[in-house]
Specification:
single chain; 369 residues; 4-stranded antiparallel sheet; globular
Length: 369
Amino acid sequence: MKWLQTLTLSLTCLLAFSVSADISRDKDLKIEKLASGLSVPWGMAVLPDNSLLVTQRENKLNHIKAGSAEVIKISGLPNDVRVGGQGGLFDIRLSPDFANSGWIYISYIKNVDGKGATTLARAKLQDKQLVEWQDLIVTQSRTGNDVHFGGRIAFDANGHVFLSLGDRGERENGQNLGNHAGSILRLKLDGSVPEDNPFVGQDNALPEIWSYGHRNVQGLFYNTDTETLWAQEHGPRGGDEINLVKPGNNYGWPEISYGQEYWAPMAVGEEKKAGMEQPVKMYDPSIAPSGLIQYQGTLFPSWQGKLLSGAMKLQHLNIVTLNDSNEAVDEKRLLRSLNSRIRNVIEAPNGAVLVGTDAGIIYRLTPAN
C-alpha cells in the first residue's frame, strides 16, 4: 500500500502545482461562451442566484439566467438615454447592501437639451422590469462632443459610490474643478455629497469631485481590503495609464501625458510636472483599456492582487503584477485568440472571470485544470 500512498501524494502535489502555477497561455484557461448575439455589452453584474445582468450601449438591459444562454430583456430604462458616438447605457453594479436594499446602480448618458450628461442612477429589479428609478446625479459635463464620457462605477466599504467622467473631448476640462468632466466623483449611496470630500467648501470647485486631471477613465475598481481606488484611462496616441487614485490629487491631463497628438508626432504636454501624479503604469502604444478589477478570488491563485483589464484596440486580457509598494513590475497579455475587443472584465463570486467583447459575446474563464 506504500506505493499507493506515494502515488496519491504525487498526484496531490501535481494538482496543487497545476492550479497554482502561473497562467501564461490561452490553453491554460477553460474559455466558455455564456451568451452571444448582444450588441456592445458595456457593463455586467452577477446577481445572488449567479445569473447575470448585462447592459448594452444601445440602451438595452438583459438578464442571463445561470446555466442558460437565453437572453431576457429587462424593461424600465429611461427614454432619455442619449445613444450616439461613444455614449449610451453604460455600467451596472449591485449596491454593497443589495441583499437588504435591492438597489442596482447604473450609469448612462442623459439627453439634456440635446447634449449628453454622464448620469448616475439607481433602481430595483422586479421580475423583468426596473422600478423605483432615481437619477442620483446628472453631472455638469455637457459639451457638443459625443466622446469621453467615462461612466465606470465602484464602491468602497464605507457607504460611498465612485463615478468616473472623461474630459468630454475638451482638454481644458481636465484641470477645471468648476465642472465634473475629467474627474472621478465620490458620493454617498443616496447621491448626497460626503462632508469629507477634498473640495467641499472650496470656492470654484464642485464638492462631488474626488480627483481630477483625467482624460477618460474606462476602468475603476475599489479594493475594500486595502482601501485603494484604481483607475485605468485612455491616453491620446499612446499614454494609456493605470493610476492609484487618492483624494484631491491631480492626475495631470492635459498638462502632463505620455501620448502624442493624433495629427502629428508631437507630445501632448510634458511627461512630468510638480503637483501632478505619475501613473503606476503607462502603455505605449495604446491598448485602449476598458473594465478593471484587482483579482481577489482563490480560483486563480497566481492572479491574486493583480490588475486585470480588457484591451479594445489591442484585443486582449491585460494582466499587471504589482509589488508590495503598488508598483507595476510585470505584464501578461491573454485571450488574443478571441480576436475581439474586450470591453469589460468582472470577477464572479466563485472566482471565475467574466469578459464581455464588442463582438457581443460574454465568456467565462476558469483554469483549464
